[in-house]
Specification:
Layout lengths: L1 H20 L3 H18 L5 H4 L4 H36 L9
Helix pairs in contact: 1-2, 1-4, 2-4
Length: 100
């Protein structure tokens, strides 16, 4: 599970760095919303309704973070499954019933 969270945490850190460089309040709000969306995907929660009252661009950035975070977690899970299947296939002996 660590690898799957690493992908999202790297993106969260990137959003924080971009927030520090933001030159306007709307830009800062966007980076913070994207970070919140990533974190919510990581923690399996959804605060979309909380952002519906925000500026439309802020809601869009929250949804971007949330959807990207969910996609990164899904990719990491798929990679783990592929790796596990490949490891199983290599360790499987021709005479084993599971390989038939």
């Amino acid at each position: 599970m660590k690898h799957s969270t690493d992908l999202v945490n790297v993106r969260i850190a990137w959003c924080r760095r971009q927030s520090a460089l933001a030159s306007t309040e709307p830009e800062l709000d966007g980076w913070r919303a994207e970070e919140d969306g990533l974190r919510d995907a990581l923690l399996n929660r959804d605060h979309t309704d909380d952002y519906r009252l925000s500026d439309p661009q802020v809601l869009e950035r929250y949804l971007l973070g949330f959807q990207d975070g969910a996609a990164l977690l899904c990719i990491a899970r798929a990679e783990r499954l592929i790796h596990a299947a490949a490891s199983h296939k290599e360790s499987c002996k021709p005479s084993a019933s599971i390989c038939r």
